[in-house]
Amino acid sequence: MNLTELNRIATAMVAPGKGILAADESSGTIKKRFDAIGVESTEANRRDYREMLFRSKEAMSQYISGVILYDETIWQDAKDGTPLIRLIEESGALPGIKVDEGTQALPMCPGELVTVGLDKLAERLKKYYERGARFAKWRAVIDIGSGIPSMTAISVNAHALARYAALCQAAQIVPIVEPEVLMDGDHDIERCYEVTQRVLNKTFQELREQRVALEGMVLKPNMAISGKKCAKQASVEEVAEKTIRLLKACVPAAVPGIAFLSGGQSDEEATAHLNAMHKLGPLPWGLTFSYGRALQAAPQKAWSGKAENVAAGQRAFSHRARMNGLASKGEWQA
Ligand code: 13P
């Protein structure tokens, strides 16, 4: 393992003014997104859609540091035969790959999930590295509800995240460690804070025990935020203040960067929250976005599966990327 190189990549992923495009929707998830815009989820349509994003020159060259791909996409060619991964490299962004294989029910823990995909991961990472991937992603999912999460769910998911991260570093790939506490419930921001604190503490304990070099990873957390169905929604300032307090308490300064998931926040909320956090600096780590929905909802709508809308889709994507790029420096204005 070359830690200097891992650290260089991780630092580039969170460079000021730039962030990560999460375009790694599994076939099931992208189908849901396409259903919403009335587009059939065929391999060709998925290719055309992602090709549109990766050929968005303004967004890709100025505001996107890296792109997380799904397995299908990393092996796919653009319409003219250029591998899609080359389009990303040529734009100056780093290609990454989602390597978890989704979630399964966690035995003995009703309603809870564990992320799977460790079997043969070392071999898969080797192939992805040869193809050009320089970072990877693994997402653990923790739900908040009555009586959950259990410490069992937090523990097994943290253990798997650390196993994955160590395997990545051994393969010279920067791991994005993503323990996502869902914002779907009716819980308040205090409960989200408390659960996320337990999750992050356990995750870093496992990372240390499994000898993961913190200098060669990126953390992808949720923000401290009110559940979507909570009657009392915390303000932008409160989300920013509590999230920074939480991260300072839990994330060692050796970690080069933190890149948030959007998790179902609206496009503008996701931008406003990141921006507000940068007003609370200086911060010990790079702090930016790794958004899926909050970067793609607008271009998906503008595109709607029509070739004549490609330029409009690219404009919509570049706009959101620019807004989030500004937010990653605290320079965004509503
Ligand atoms: P969202 O920003 O839509 O939450 O997606 C980010 C991601 O990669 C989740 O794993």
UniProtKB/TrEMBL annotation:
This is fructose-bisphosphate aldolase. The keyword Lyase applies. Belongs to the class I fructose-bisphosphate aldolase family. Pfam families: Glycolytic. NCBIfam families: FrucBisAld_I. Keywords: Glycolysis, Lyase. Its EC number is 4.1.2.13. Signal peptide: none annotated. Pathway: Carbohydrate degradation; glycolysis; D-glyceraldehyde 3-phosphate and glycerone phosphate from D-glucose: step 4/4. InterPro entries: Aldolase_TIM, FBA_I. Coiled coil: none annotated. It is an enzyme of class 4 (lyase). PANTHER family: FRUCTOSE-BISPHOSPHATE ALDOLASE (PTHR11627).
